[in-house]
Amino acid sequence: MAAAPAAAGSGVGRGRRAAATVAAWGGWGGRPRPGNILLQLRQGQLTGRGLVRAVQFTETFLTERDKQSKWSGIPQLLLKLYATSHLHSDFIECQNILKEISPLLSMEAMAFVTEERKLTQETTYPNTYIFDLFGGVDLLVEILMRPTISIRGQKLKISDEMSKDCLSILYNTCVCTEGVTKRLAEKNDFVIFLFTLMTSKKTFLQTATLIEDILGVKKEMIRLDEVPNLSSLVSNFDQQQLANFCRILAVTISEMDTGNDDKHTLLAKNAQQKKSLSLGPSAAEINQAALLSIPGFVERLCKLATRKVSESTGTASFLQELEEWYTWLDNALVLDALMRVANEESEHNQASIVLPPPGASEENGLPHTSPRTQLPQSMKIMHEIMYKLEVLYVLCVLLMGRQRNQVHRMIAEFKLIPGLNNLFDKLIWRKHSASALVLHGHNQNCDCSPDITLKIQFLRLLQSFSDHHENKYLLLNNQELNELSAISLKANIPEVEAVLNTDRSLVCDGKRGLLTRLLQVMKKEPAESSFRFWQARAVESFLRGTTSYADQMFLLKRGLLEHILYCIVDSECKSRDVLQSYFDLLGELMKFNVDAFKRFNKYINTDAKFQVFLKQINSSLVDSNMLVRCVTLSLDRFENQVDMKVAEVLSECRLLAYISQVPTQMSFLFRLINIIHVQTLTQENVSCLNTSLVILMLARRKERLPLYLRLLQRMEHSKKYPGFLLNNFHNLLRFWQQHYLHKDKDSTCLENSSCISFSYWKETVSILLNPDRQSPSALVSYIEEPYMDIDRDFTEE
Hints:
This protein is about 60% helix and about 0% strand. By secondary structure, the protein is mainly alpha-helical. One of its GO terms (molecular function) is ubiquitin-like ligase-substrate adaptor activity.
């Protein structure tokens, strides 16, 4: 029983194998105890010492141990794989062994997905675990990378079929065994090498899926300029491959923290930006530039985004059919393979996919398909939806990057907007999508559904496209552009220059432009819909920037104001995000527009309605402060105009009368300053600081700034906490100077949105921060000496 296991082979090889085994077992004093093998292997993986691979055991010992532990012969197969995969192998036997290993792991991967969907308790998957534990993952990486090795000036080659087997086994192991994907992500040279395997159509899908998983957990973003011949690689992709590649690009061109952009404090973001300036462009920015340098890249993305799907949606079982397919097809690898078969067999009108019987082996973990297989129309539509949302995401990120103007120009030239307009009814906002298909384990309103995700990504793209850019008028058709010109002519105001400069050959065609279509579905959206937030954001971006009366009237004539007020007052909307987006949109729609205030007063025509409206405003000033700012600015302008129409609105509008009261303004001012602090300022709530500044700038214009500061001081004392508000405001203004004086884009936005020159903003802040305690407009004059606390460092707590 104590005898060492017999070594396989003979002669010198047997001696070396025995020596290696003894060295590996040294800490155990001879033969390892079976119960400790897995533990020792895991420790060896972590430390890089001791037992790390099957090759450190003899085949006899592994076979004996397998009888007890039921390892499905995987360690023995790995031992053979190691012996048949050396540099001088012909790899034929190696490939045969891989085909023995593959079904053992692919069935587990399929089971893993099934179990996950059923939300069952955690299950162990011994085959993939054993494969990894005995060094299978590292061995496959070495096999795949053999072509990078040169022998006597000639590079080694392995077949596409063998590469595909290796990739599928690696993917299945990543799916089932925790930690494998992260370990692969740490091998940067391997990750870069994987991109080269996408040159072959036979290995493209497996490679793309594995890369996507690896990049999803990689701590440091990969640099695309390190990928050999990137331009040639991407240029040679067909359209389907390029669409699939966009899933990988989504990870490589997005800044690591953009998902929580509004939640990160401005202090942290500013510190990160300073650090980035010293380090140069980020990896995401470098990757964006690398992609934009590829000839025809953006044009091909635009073609993918606007590609039509032939539809035959007359069947009553459309949604049920879609549900049946998507029940198990949420793996891109499976879906693409099935689509490929379907395209090859397009001459057949109907067929079905034959799922493998339980226990049957499957190459690459994909279901077997009959020679006459063709997917139903519903699956083709789903396939196109899944591609389009990835493509739209990439275009959206590029639109927000450093090369924004270049991307804008190309997107306009390649007619992305008219193309999306033509797809709006039939694909993007299909009638069937009300009961949108969802992933298992999620509900119908979850953003994980491809149908829902496509809509949100489409709305985000529109928001990025319209935001502070004159190309926003491409969202209209020729008739609608003429309507804008007519509005300006009737109001006797100059026509918007950007409208005059719009290339009419690039605008939307058909009866309605994309903006009008969006307004139509927005007004029909159910009260509880998650789309309301994104729809409002997209429309608001069209209005952002310098206020345009013609743009506002265009939207007012289509009933937008009444719809917003219905949602705020009558629909009992509870979502803070939706309310914030509607308040922001309402502010942009009404700002400086007498007609909008007349419409507001006509809708909010009772005290009861007005009180509901005020309750919504006051329930969260972080959400409603932009509306408060727009109404305050409008009131100031109206009071300085001599016009009967304006005078009538001033005398009748409940909202203007409410905002005009000094106690109301002071209440807003006090709360706006009190709910923010330097350490908690974010992109979302910094607007509260700017709204408080607007109130004080307008007071300064009327020479009432000392009065407002004195009233703030009294309010402090009434709260039995002297100095707490004005000290906080002083710190906030100091931060404001640091934040805005070095950001041209942000300062321009403040100027355009308020119609107050940025120099006046700066002057007002400087006056408030004047250290002279004798100045009637300096904050320090209203903070009593014992309570002075104005020199704090701006550091994260």
